[in-house]
Amino acid sequence: MIVGIDLGTTNSAVAYWDAGEARLVPNSLGQLVTPSAVSIDDDGELLVGLPARERQPTHPDRTATAFKRYMGTSRKLKLGRKEYAPEDLSALVLASLKRDAEVHLGGPVTGAVITVPAYFNDKQRRATRRAGELAGLKVERLINEPTAAALAFGIHQRAVEEPFLVFDLGGGTFDVSLVEMFEGIIEVRASAGDNRLGGEDFNRVLIDFAREKLAGVLPETHEGEALYEVMRDAAERARRALSEADEAPYRFVWDGREHRIAVTADAFAERAEPLIERLREPVLRSLRDGSTKVGELSEIVLVGGATRMPIVRKAVTRMFGRFPDTTVHPDHAVALGAAVQAGLKRRDADLDEVRLTDVCPFTLGVGISERDARGGRRDGIFSPIIERNTVIPASRVQRYFTMIDNQETIRLEVYQGEARHVVDNVWLGQLDIPVPRKPAGEVGVDCRFTYDTSGLLEVDVSVPETEISQQLLIYDRDDAALAANLDARREALAALKVHPRDQAANAALLARANRCYEGYLGETRDYVGSLLSHFESVLANQDPREIESARTEIARRLDEIEGEQFL
Ligand code: AMP
Question: Do residues 252 and 368 both lie within one domain?
Fold first, then answer.
């Protein structure tokens, strides 16, 4: 059997073709999407999916998420003491989906059609292919996510060339693609986007709103990340609730106190207006690049969890003067489309696809120091020069200035990645260039990055005042080495102890209850502690019926505390 797999940054899903229809496969928890998360527990067993996602807040150093962002890079992610390549972690997710499909279908799954973002370059595609092979799958084909989405909405059944506009708003990125089909060949004709716009930005709107409402109540000098995480979680819950209701509570516990405000859909809409405004430009750009008028669009299809927000749907309707097609669930469309392609393949009728231009898959830049408003110095800040998704070959220049009086050299450290702090990015090399001794800020250096399709980064640094310049060539590490020992790696991954599938629901509940225990204080914490003790003793008894009823009951009580669990 060949399945279709959406290997997503946040969530993944697997689907198959059956009796003329694409269908999703439920995982061992009965859910149709599986978080792309891997964690290692205290017994050294691997958890994949929801139990792993739930462990992220309590065991961040033993849990990996969002590794898709690093596919095709040499970055390694640590799980406990061991390091894994992003493609290994993706392979673990794929292997879990493969198992789910085999259990559901009652037979072996041998091959898969896997989806990738349209902007993935060759290197990222090769890494995705390897991840599939490491999971024991024959990768029949990789298809672009927007193409898969268009297939799920039936683009292949339309009579003539009718472009579909795929509007994909996820957790952190916004992608608009024009997909067209012509004589059996499907093409992403244009794509545009904003890789800094997604559900997270809408969370930030709510966090700011809550901060304003709670001004004077919340500590001014908030304890950075910890408070932000708690407020973010509250925002995520409130925002999802606002997709269903006109008003939702925004509540969280901080420093032993519960804070609660009510947010109305109208207040949220008003605050989110600047973000909604930003959805317009990429849409216009893709239409322009694809020489297509709104009236020529056959369908507007929504993909990505954040398109569930009513304000987004309203904006789309306003922008296009008609309603988008919402017949397929935005979280399911990509996997279903991959299954359509798998079904076509089975009948030898699969569609060919044309690739988009190559783009740089990651941001390239240098580490700099900054002065903040109070004159304090912050080191190790990432300054992007060539941004992710820039069409390559590309050449960009930035000017940097000295920070201290009589500085003698400027050091430029080159990094690849998306994080604001360079420690979280991948170090590629460094250059020191002498500069004339002058007061701080009076000497500048120009740093030019040139990046081509073969993955060669040329760094050229020059001091206009002295005309001194230096160059550095950084070669992309060859991935031949990664491809060479595939069999050994597959065996190593297969030998890892995986937490038993039939225990996944218990593991997920334990992880969730532990997260709640850490996230609350006082009576609520004691209460969650007693639920945990109870569940642990039921587990020790090993009576499946008792375990199941305790699990249902405890999940209900946790829902009462923090609202329903979400993926
Ligand atoms: P994706 O990357 O496609 O999985 O989308 C993830 C984003 O969708 C996150 O920012 C979620 O907050 C958002 N999302 C998922 N479900 C909902 C919902 N019911 N209402 C609003 N946003 C949602």
Answer: no
- Torsions phi, psi of 549, nearest 5? -70, -35
- Residue 115 belongs to domain spanning: 2-197+275-359
Residues 6+ positions from 540 with CB-CB distance below 8 Å: none
How far apart, in whole angstroms, are the C-alpha atoms of residue 164 and residue 147?
9
Distance CA 364, CA 388 (A): 8
Q: Going by C-beta distance under 8 Å and a sequence separation of 6 or more, which residues neighbour residue 70? A: 77, 86
Instruction: Tell me if residue 321 falls in helix, strand or coil.
Output: coil
Ligand 1 center from residue 479 Cα (angstroms): 34
| Amino acid at position 145, single letter | E
pLDDT of residue 424: 85
Q: Are residue 417 and residue 515 in the same domain, yes or no?
A: no
Ligand 1, pocket residues at CB < 6 Å: 8, 10-11, 170-171, 198-200, 236, 239-240, 243, 304-306, 308-309
Among 306, 334, 359, the domain-final residue is 359
- Are 244 and 116 in a shared domain? no
Asked if residue 34 and residue 113 are part of one domain, the reply reads yes
Structural domain tally of the chain? 4
Which position has the token pair 């060859």? 478
Amino acid at 328: V
Whose C-alpha lies nearest to ligand 1, atom 2?
170
Q: Which atom of ligand 1 is nearest to the CA of 305?
A: 8
- Ligand 1: residue whose CA is nearest its atom 9: 171
CATH number, position 138:
3.30.420.40
DSSP letter, residue 421: B
Co-location of 230 and 318 in the same domain: no
- Which residue is closest in CA terms to ligand 1's atom 18? 240
- CA-based max dimension of the chain: 79
The span from the CA of 521 to the CA of 528, in Å, is 10
| Structure token pair of residue 395 | 């050449």
Nearest protein Cα to ligand 1, atom 14: 305
Active site residues: 6, 68, 145, 168
Q: Out of 36, 175, 239, give the residue to mutate to test ligand 1, the one with the largest number of ligand atoms within 8 Å of its CB.
A: 239
Average pLDDT per consecutive 10 residues, the chain (567 residues; last block may be shorter): 95 94 96 97 94 92 92 88 94 98 97 90 86 96 93 85 91 91 83 87 96 83 72 93 95 84 97 97 90 93 96 97 94 97 81 65 89 85 90 91 94 90 89 95 96 84 95 75 82 91 94 89 91 96 95 95 81
Ligand 1 centroid to Cα of residue 175, in Å, is: 14
Q: Whose CA is nearest to atom 19 of ligand 1?
A: 240
Q: Do residue 8 and residue 143 come from a single domain?
A: yes
CB-CB neighbours of 290 under 10 Å: 23
Say how many Å lie between the first and final Cα of the chain, rounded: 28
pLDDT of residue 477: 59
Q: Which of 202, 236, 240 to mutate to test the pocket of ligand 1 (most atoms within 8 A of CB)?
A: 240
d(Cα 72, Cα 86) in Å, to the nearest integer?
A: 8
